[in-house]
Amino acid sequence: MAYTRKASASQIILYNKCPFAYYREYKLKQKPPATPALIKGSLVHAILEKFYDINIRSGRITKYNYNTELQLYIEELMNTILKEPRTRYGKTLPTFEEELHSVCADDFEYIKELVDCKKMLRNFVILYCMQLEQFIDKFGNIQQSFYMLRPKFRELELSLEDFVGYADQVFKDGPAIVIDDHKSSTIFGDGFSDDHELQLMLYCYAYYMINDVLPTKARINYLRYGVRCQYRFAEDIIEKSKKIISDFLINTESEDPQKYPLNVKDKFCTCKLSEHPNGKGFKSGFKCGHQKFCDEAIENGTAVILNETEEFNDN
Ligand code: SF4
Fold it and tell me: For a tag on the chain, would you pick the N or C end, based on fewer CB atoms within 10 A?
C-alpha cells in the first residue's frame, strides 16, 4: 500500500511559525535537544494519563478528605512515574528521572524542576477538586462522582487519511462531548493562543470525521496557571480544517530546503537576522533549538528569508 503523508496539529503550527524549523524537525528529523521544559511536559502528561487509574473504592479517598488526599496521591504517582522503566517502539528509554537529571546542571536545578512539576500537578488537582465538589453536592457519593468525572477516552488517537492527532482526554456527558488538552508551557501566560485554538479546531474536525458528531466544546488546561480556556466550534470548521490540512500537505511536499525559508520575524526567532523585538536579545535566555544552523546558513549565504512583508507571528 502506498505511504500517505499525514499532517498533525504540531506540524502545521510549526510550519506556520517557521518553515525552516519545520524542515529541520520533520524533513531532516533533527529535533532540537531535549530541555527541562520538554521533559517536564512529557512527565506531567504521563502522570495525568494515569491519574484516573486511582482505586477510588479503596476507602483512602473520601468526600471529607479528597482535597488533601488527591494532592498526596498525585505526588506519589509522580514519584513512581519518575522511576518507571520506559520503552518506545521496543527501544528502552531512560526513566524520566534519568532524562531530567541529564539536562539539569546539578541536583539543585533538578529539584527546582521537580518543584515546578509539583506546582502544575497541584493546579490540576485544584481544578479537578472544584469539579468533583459540584458532583459530590449533586450525588452525595464520591465514588459515583469520580466515575462521572472520568474521561471516556485518554490519549485518543484521531486518525484520518491525511491527519492524525491525539486528544489528551475526551469526556462524554449525555450528548455532550468535550475534548481536553493539557499544556505545561510558560509561554502563553495570558491563557490564550491562536495556535492552541487551531489545534483544538483540528481535533474537533477529526473527531467529527470519525464519529459524525461535532464535539460540544474543546478546552486547554494551562496547568502552570490553573486556567482553563474553552472553545466552541461550529460546522464551518469542517471545510476550513480540510483546506488547512490540504494546503499544508501541498506546501510541505518538497524536500528542497530552499522551499522552507527562515521566518526571522517569528516571536521566538533568535537567529542573527531576527527582526522581532524580542528575538536576538531574548531576555529569558531562550534560544531557538535551530538557531546554530540558521546562523550558519546566514553566514554562508544559503539562507532563504521569508517574505519581508509577512506579519509577525505573535501567537
Ligand atoms: S532561529 Fe528563527 S529562523 Fe531559525 S529556525 Fe528558529 S525561528 Fe526559524
Answer: N
Residues across the chain: 315
Same domain, 185 and 284: no
Is the residue at 194 inside a domain?
yes
Domain assignment of residue 1, yes or no = no
Q: Helices (DSSP H) in 149-284: which residue ranges?
A: 194-211, 237-251
Contacts of 282 (CB under 8 A, 6+ apart): 268, 270
Look up residue 214 and give its DSSP letter.
Answer: -
Distance 242 CA to ligand 1 centre (A): 27
pLDDT per position as a tens digit, 20-77: 999 999 999 999 989 999 999 999 999 999 999 999 889 899 999 999 999 999 999 9
Which domain covers residue 267, as residue numbers? 261-315
E strand intervals along 126-268: 153-159, 164-173, 176-183, 217-222, 227-231
CA of 196 to the centre of ligand 1 (A): 20
264 close to 275: Cβ distance less than 8 angstroms: yes
CA within 13 Å, CB half, 4? 11
User: For residue 148, what is its C-alpha cell?
Assistant: 462521572
291 Cα nearest atom in ligand 1: 1
Atom of ligand 1 nearest to the CA of 289: 6
